[in-house]
Model the fold of this input.
Amino acid sequence: MPASTFARLSNPSRSTTPSMVLGTATVLGGSVAGLLAARVLSDHAASVLIIERDEPDAGDDQRNGVPQGFQIHALLPGGLSLLERWFPGFTEQVIAAGACAAPATARRTYIDGVRKVIGSAATMLTGSRAFLEGQIRERVLALPNVKAITARVTDVVFDGDAVSGVSYESSGMSSVERSDLVIDAMGKSSRMAEWLEKKGWERPPLRRMVVDLNYATAVLRREEGDPAGNIHLALKSGKTSGDASGAMFCRIEGDRWLMMMAGYQDRKPGRTAEDLLRVARQEFPPEFELVADNELVEEIRTYRHADSRRRDYHLVSKLPARLVAVGDAVAAFNPVYGQGMSSAALHASCLSEYLCSEPELAKPARAFFALQRVVVDAAWDISTGADLALPHVDGPYPRGYPVLRWVRNQISAASVYDREIGRRFDEVTYMIQHPSSLARPGVLARAIAVNLWSKFRSRP
Done:
């Protein structure tokens, strides 16, 4: 059952007893998904090697492998609780280092200018992507059996029906790293499917949903008298016009704000300081103008997300043994929903459960991909369900989409006014609960009643 599997994988209190099942493990990619995979592998392998094409610690600099790195990032409660599992005391330590806690009382969300009621009481963290990733990297590389090198992976190596290592280039030299298990964490641009097909294996099916999203993000100095709280999010449902589809600002380390504006297709709001302030003043609640009027710390940076995509490894009939894929290498979603780091943490939980079962590594890791499918399906349901409501997005549609859309609309509308529905809605979007929890008859009945009452109250 997907819901019970999701609950088990997202449970931060599950004990993990280290059991050695591997000699060596190699992780391709040192971003959040790769780092968390390495953390799990450290409990099950004598040695873990992370091969990352960028410098392992790029600080505040842009890494080529993370083109969206300058955009807003928040560590959702679902991911944060699992980081506490892998690194006890993580939240307190990272806040002390400069991250910003965002409990329910420090978050504001507006839908078409209407402020939502407080929903989930769970806390999330905000900080720049470089900072948050750096905090995770520091803890992973402190493990005695984990090391990282800077190199470019060029291919996978096979021994019969199993992956036995990878070839890579570093400083102009080619090398081969033998491994008992290879983890593809190379992100959305991973070439693993191409390498598999080239060697006679089956390429995992690729699903795409074109969303054509444009971001503009500014770093601004935080001033005395600025709005209280940490995260302010304002979204438009499509009923209102304007240049932006949504905007958000949040506190990050160094006493700064990150402000993001987003638009779809030809709309590219906030690309200059003047446009940022204009849109904030004309289209969003007053606190957005107040923050946008602050001093810009650095130039505004833009990013385009063309599509959401997923590679369905669970559907591959001809799959080599000793190969696993995690993070954006499997599924990359519309970043406006903030699922990336939390999905990576849940993929690490899948890897932990798979290795704790002491699998037969000579066979394909189908048990792992079956677990991961539950996580990917949940995140895909959250993001694409909302994206399909956009007028320019044209499928692919799931079976029974008209009914699913009606149910989602009822729940989403009621979450603006009702705290219980808001809590349940948040727990799904924060990746704490499985989306099926919103389809329970009692939840839907309450949402319908709330929406009928709100329409009655709005009558003249």
In short: The longest strand covers residues 206-221. The chain has a mean pLDDT of 92. The CA atoms of residues 7 and 281 lie 42 Å apart.
